[in-house]
Amino acid sequence: MPRFEWVVSCENNHYLLWQAMLFHYSCLRHQGQAPLVMVHREEGELLLDGFQRIVERGGKVRSAPNYRRLHGVNYPPRNTAASLKHAETDADYLVLCDCDMIFLQPCPLEQMTLGPGQLSFDEVGYLRPDHPAYQPQLDDACRRAKIPPERLRAIPIDGGVPHVIPRQLQQRLAADWLECLDLFPLINTPVPERSANPPPDLRFVPQRDWLSGMWGLVFATHRLGLEAVMTHWCRSNLEGPGPMPAIGPGGPCLIHYCYGDERFNKRHYATAEAAERTVWNVAPRGDGTVHDELRRQLQEAREFYGIAEFAEGRIADKCG
Q1: Which of 96, 185, 212, 297 has the smallest count of CB within 10 Å of its CB?
Q2: Is 41 helix (H, G, I), strand (E, B) or coil?
Q3: Full-model pTM
Q4: Domain extents for the chain?
Q5: How far is CA 43 from CA 38, 40, 64, in A?
């Protein structure tokens, strides 16, 4: 029986910490396995205390260099490829995830039969090369990667996380993925990183489009001559106000809560106070929606980690 290692990528900040804690709880609860939490941090930077909570609850936390800022470019999705590069496992397959995901039921890994030159993508529906939002920049990057643009259309790979990756492909795929990311054009994004009123030269930080990370893996798959196998395990919370999908054979196994609305929006919990306090006080409403499932699992995770109510405005252990 092949062995699978769930790997979740995050950074050493409060915003991704609570998501990693929720992912660990949800994976343990529904998949029956503690994931490997890859935390990307700067040299000499201390891990936030919450990662120790994961370890205390049976989790596996490993540190890796932070690839967010390389070559003068600030691009957080680079760390997903870096997690694949630095994850150490003796499992047959790695199952690579983003941390803003929760489980609904076990993924049918026992049904996965990947050959040595195959990896999986979960269908997303928006990686269409002819979409005007991507062109002509996508075809230009494709040529820089020495891939004929026609190949993107002839062998479409319209998918994202989770990715099931044979361990023998791990290092080769991670290296090419990271290399492909540097082939995408830069955009100047207003990010006042150092102060509320940064000097003119700091008002714009070179970035890449958030989908460059996904397209980069598509490029690497083509360049290495690999075959993409499509799965249908994950749903996004784009329809968060809608009812929960049916759980059972053929139903979704994961929710990727990359979107948000007034019922739940992960971006509302980006500050240290919101991540340590407010998000753990989110309560379910009992309306049977996708976002209510998120709220319910947050409450369960609070119990799992022994996080008390926040009368004092800080995390406290129930036992003390």
Answers
A1: 185
A2: strand
A3: 0.92
A4: 4-305
A5: 15, 10, 9
